From TrEMBL:
It holds the Pfam family Trp_Tyr_perm. It is found in: Cell inner membrane. It comes from the Bacteria. This is Tryptophan/tyrosine permease. It is a multi-pass membrane protein. One of its GO terms (biological process) is amino acid transmembrane transport. The chain crosses the membrane at residues 12-32, 38-63, 84-104, 110-134, 146-164, 184-206, 218-239, 272-290, 311-330, 336-353, 365-389. Signal peptide: none annotated. The keyword Transport applies. It comes from Deinococcus proteolyticus (strain ATCC 35074 / DSM 20540 / JCM 6276 / NBRC 101906 / NCIMB 13154 / VKM Ac-1939 / CCM 2703 / MRP). Keywords: Amino-acid transport, Cell inner membrane, Cell membrane, Membrane, Plasmid, Transmembrane, Transmembrane helix, Transport.
Length: 399
């Protein structure tokens, strides 16, 4: 492969990671962080990015000794047997099915508004249309993502161009209303950076090349980090904290931003960005879910090809049924997404690295043993955050 072709594949991997990570939920994230203020929010975003980037490097080091076709469930099984396989499979599938149901629901709403369809036809058309893209595998998703993601960034840049000139330094320097929120919002940030499910697909796409994989993960997570920080700066700098903390929906935020700037284009721009972000995330999570199902239930995959109809039906039908028949269920699933993300994206890579080193594999990570052992300590703390909020020992997040 020529150097130019390799660079093109790496850039495709960057866009796939960033597109999966940078979801429509980013727009409403300031509703969750409003009482923490911009300074602590920015600090938390950078810290969690550092944590999730490091755990991604842990996965990549493990994959130097494994085929990318061995998913997280298989790796957990090899390390600690069937109980570990069951726990990891449950965490990953609950996480991804919750996201897929949410994306399917919102995608159906989007098509319903654009085409004048009812909700059910909108959900079905959206699922079939982009489900067929997922069925083509990583190359099919990459081909569509290369068109959608640059447009998504252009729209985001346009929003910022309208908002940043009106940012007030006084608003940005407002102190946090509750210091404890610094801890409470961290699981939300972990979910926002939970791109790790796509790593096996990316590793296969880049022929498991360690250098290219590290480059793709750095840029693929760096773009969302920059976007999160600049969006928080724009919203916290545009809207006083007292007003921002009283909002409960993205629609209210959109109305307030439009009023603050006097520009009606912002509302439409936010809707367009949300639609693009929703679709790139649907493609990334859908691709990852097909690979996870194949890895978790290899008997089903053997009855067809890797993304044959049995796997595709398992990928797409449950989210559609949840959306249409039990519309509140995906909200319940999403409420546990932070917990599931901590299990598979923070604790699992630590377990796999420890097992690999006991097997004599040369796992090379920055920071030495101290940084390595910090990972499970932070992971356990993050698992305790919902319990501490339930006991009123930490303030509850809103939004």
């Amino acid at each position: 492969m020529t150097q130019r072709a390799q660079q093109g594949k790496t850039w495709g991997a960057v866009m796939l990671i960033a597109g999966t990570t940078l979801g429509a939920g980013m727009l409403a994230m300031p509703l969750t962080t409003s009482r923490a203020g911009f300074g602590l929010t920015a600090l938390g975003l950078v810290a969690v990015w550092g944590l999730t980037y490091y755990t991604a490097l842990m996965f990549l080091e493990v994959y130097r000794y494994h085929s990318p076709q061995e998913g997280f469930s298989t790796l957990a099984d090899q390390a600690h047997g069937k109980p570990a396989r069951f726990a990891v499979t449950a965490a990953i599938l609950l996480y991804m099915y919750g996201l897929m149901a949410a994306y399917t629901n919102e995608g159906g709403n989007l098509l319903s508004r654009l085409l004048g369809l009812g909700h059910t036809p909108g959900v079905l058309v959206y699922t079939v249309l982009f489900g067929l893209v997922v069925k083509q595998g990583v190359r099919g998703v990459d081909g569509v993502n290369r068109w959608l993601f640059p447009v998504q960034l252009l729209v985001f840049g346009g929003l910022l161009a309208l908002m940043l000139p009106r940012v007030s330094l006084g608003h940005l320097s407002a102190p946090p209303q509750e210091l404890g929120l610094t801890l409470s919002i961290l699981p939300v940030f972990v979910t926002a950076y939970s791109f790790h499910v796509v790593l096996p697909s990316i590793a296969e796409f880049l022929d498991n090349d360690p250098a290219e994989l590290r480059r793709a993960v750095l840029w693929g997570t760096g773009i969302p980090l920059a976007a999160y920080l600049v969006w928080q700066l724009a919203i916290h700098g545009l809207i006083p904290q007292a007003q921002l903390s009283g909002l409960t929906s993205l629609g209210e935020l959109s109305d307030l931003v439009t009023a603050a700037t006097g520009n009606r284009l912002l509302g439409g721009g936010m809707d367009l960005f949300a639609g693009l972000a929703l679709t790139t995330s649907f493609l990334g999570i859908g691709l990852s879910l097909t690979d996870s199902l194949r890895d978790s239930f290899p008997g089903i995959a053997r009855r067809g090809d890797r993304r044959g109809w049995p796997i595709m039906l398992l990928t797409l039908v449950p989210p559609v049924l949840v959306t249409l028949l039990v519309p509140g269920a995906f909200v319940v699933l999403l409420s546990y997404s932070g917990l599931m993300a901590v299990i598979y994206s923070i604790l699992l890579p630590f377990v796999l690295v420890r097992h690999a080193r006991r097997q004599g594999q040369d796992i090379q990570l920055p920071g030495g043993p101290a940084l390595l052992w910090l990972v499970p300590l932070v992971g356990i703390l993050l698992l305790l955050v919902p319990l501490l909020m339930g006991l009123d020992l930490l303030p509850k997040v809103s939004g």
